[in-house]
Write a structure and sequence with these properties.
binds cytidine-5'-triphosphate, two-stranded antiparallel sheet, 14 strands, eight-stranded mixed sheet, alpha/beta
Length: 229
């Protein structure tokens, strides 16, 4: 069966999913942090679409200004480290994971326990270390689970997303050209390309809610393929 044949309104009753959303905040001192422009809208829309399909949803959310989707179990986290720990714990008991969070790639090596004073000079250079890659870590342990990642790119969208599909080891990358005003962090629309191991499928400009419905339908299709094989 081709993926396109699966219904746009799948029944995911009994299916458990993990969705991550929003940015992470990486503390510098008690009042300062490194963040990014993610609004969390895409991840929250995906959580709602899964709930509409009847799935049991655990939403692991970074700091956002959005209402919790009714019916979801919401786990609030702040840092990339917290998001990794929560994701690994929840991943053990789900059938699919969609990792839409914009996780910080770097975090300060040291977090000051007091507000750093200008006179100390400690804010001029902040030493950073890489965070763990949650998508890669979960994909390495996925077994029969379906894992979907995102790629936010400003250039060479398909090439970079295809490279991420391979390097992260997930089943699907939702590639978003964030150089476009109608498809960037905070917008209500997206123009994404779904990148599968057998090639890319470009979608037209649509509301984030519609993109979410398509992602849920694709996950349903991949789960059905797994069960049939
Ligand atoms: N991601 C993750 N953990 C990280 C960084 C990213 O799980 N520490 C996940 C995101 O949730 C997303 C995917 O990886 O699903 C791609 O994120 P992106 O920032 O586009 O890619 P990076 O791997 O950070 O690559 P680069 O910054 O070089 O584009």
């Amino acid at each position: 069966m081709r993926r396109d044949d699966f219904t746009a309104h799948p029944d995911l009753t009994g299916v458990r999913v993990l969705v991550t959303a929003g940015p992470t905040h990486e503390a510098i001192d008690p009042v300062r942090y490194i963040a990014n422009a993610s609004s969390g809208k895409m991840g929250y829309a995906i959580a709602r679409a899964f709930l509409r399909a009847g799935a049991a949803v655990t939403l692991i959310s970074g700091p956002v200004a959005l209402d919790a989707p009714e019916g979801a179990e919401v786990v609030h986290v702040t840092s990339a480290e917290e998001m990794l720990a929560a994701s690994e714990e929840v991943f053990a008991r789900v059938d699919a994971a969609v990792l839409a969070a914009a996780v910080a790639d770097y975090t300060p090596v040291r977090v000051a326990d007091h507000k750093i004073k200008k006179s100390e000079g400690g804010l001029r250079v902040i030493e950073l270390k890489e965070t763990a890659d949650i998508l890669k870590a979960l994909s390495a342990a996925k077994g029969p689970r379906v894992v979907v990642g995102f790629a936010a790119e400003t250039d060479d969208l398909i090439a970079h997303a295809t490279e991420k599909l391979t390097s992260k080891g997930c089943d699907l990358i939702v590639a978003n050209d964030v150089s476009r005003a109608d498809s960037t962090f905070g917008s209500d629309t997206d123009r994404v390309t779904l990148v599968f191991p057998d090639g890319p499928r470009a979608l037209p400009l649509m509301a984030k809610g519609e993109v979410a419905e398509i992602i849920v339908a694709e996950v349903a299709g991949l789960l059905a393929e797994r069960r049939a094989s």
